[in-house]
Amino acid sequence: xxxxxxxxxxxxxxxxxxxxxxxxxxxxxxxxxxxxxxxxxxxxxxxxxxxxxxxxxxxxxxxxxxxxxxxxxxxxxxxxxxxxxxxxxxxxxxxxxxxxxxxxxxxxxxxxxxxxxxxxxxxxxxxxxxxxxxxxxxxxxxxxxxxxxxxxxxxxxxxxxxxxxxxxxxxxxxxxxxxxxxxxxxxxxxxxxxxxxxxxxxxxxxxxxxxxxxxxxxxxxxxxxxxxxxxxxxxxxxxxxxxxxxxxxxxxxxxxxxxxxxxxxxxxxxxxxxxxxxxxxxxxxxxxxxxxxxxxxxxxxxxxxxxxxxxxxxxxxxxxxxxxxxxxxxxxxxxxxxxxxxxxxxxxxxxxxxxxxxxxxxxxxxxxxxxxxxxxxxxxxxxxxxxxxxxxxxxxxxxxxxxxxxxxxxxxxxxxxxxxxxxxxxxxxxxxxxxxxxxxxxxxxxxxxxxxxxxxxxxxxxxxxxxxxxxxxxxxxxxxxxxxxxxxxxx
Length: 491
Known about the structure:
Blueprint: H1 2-27, E1 31-37, H2 56-63, E2 66-72, H3 78-87, E3 101-103, E4 110-113, H4 123-129, E5 133-139, E6 158-162, E7 175-178, E8 181-184, H5 215-229, E9 235-240, H6 252-255, H7 279-303, E10 310-316, H8 346-349, E11 350-356, E12 365-367, E13 371-372, H9 376-383, H10 397-400, E14 413-417, E15 423-428, E16 431-435, E17 447-450, H11 466-479
Helix pairs in contact: 5-7
């Protein structure tokens, strides 16, 4: 009996040891949080030179992690940028290439955008395959509930937020969505596209555009709950906040510190979206509120002891907007880069990108790797040890972890955007080729810029570099595939 007891004890110790080893292995799978801003320009946070808007948490993220200087979105507007992020495809291959709107603005007409098709392989699917619990909290824009684009059908175990981008125009919506069911909020419907008469409007008239429940606050609440529920297992949290996309709406507590700091006049809605008595102060407040949410997420991870096992990344879908009372020039939102949202010039597509992973990413580091958001799928496949086919991306994991000698590079980045007249752009090393108004003029000329010496794209060198124009034309022929949407085929 004694020998048998000893034998059982040894077996038990071995079994517990095996569990411990495997638990350790499981814990080595890092949690991943990808925070995505909406219409945030390249230089609207302190880490990229912003001086008027306070972003202490994002600045801390940069100090404790890595900052990329040459990181790009897939395209310069909402829905297709998100589709390319999720599917690892550039604008010449992506299923969704523009904002294909369905329905209207009232709740009764909520229909969303063109949904991702059934059978799409997304970042969510990739992480599920690796044993991660996955969540989307924020703005989706890739299909409503009941369609093939529902997040529940596109790789996410849980979702909460805005499915329809048009609903996102108000930060005080009547409802958000949680796993294909409406979550009713204590807000009344606000017609954010109702302008005010400058001659008749009183200060009280601006209060119409304020609500009780601020959607981004609810998103943070749900994100924290998901982290809590999955703290023992590896998780992937995609957190696309709708900030700071107009309408200009923010909680008073965040607006008040900025009132009186800027030379501003009331905005009455003459360029669309909600009127606002303090447009500059409110825009700054929206970015500072976004920054505060990043800080809340970081503190949660720290409090749970998950700091060293969690990668937190931050970027934006496209450059600063040009309407709704936003003044990109006043805030130097894109640091002098040419263009804004809807442009394939640098100001429309070059984005901030920060990543923090204590113990793995060197604090205060900077990467000049030419990379794109459609690289994220390949990067996560690399991180989780999965083979990936049929992607336009390249893993930037070596750059994150400082193993730069192992970093593969793109021969070029390709951009194809069917809106605003049809546009093309190619980043090839220090060179950039741009074609605009292609739909109207199929023979429109290439513009050629040398970004190392002319980052703001002010001097067209096409006439002195015909060989580059020839290369750009060959790249377009190689990379373009016709879309299933006729209006997106402008080549």
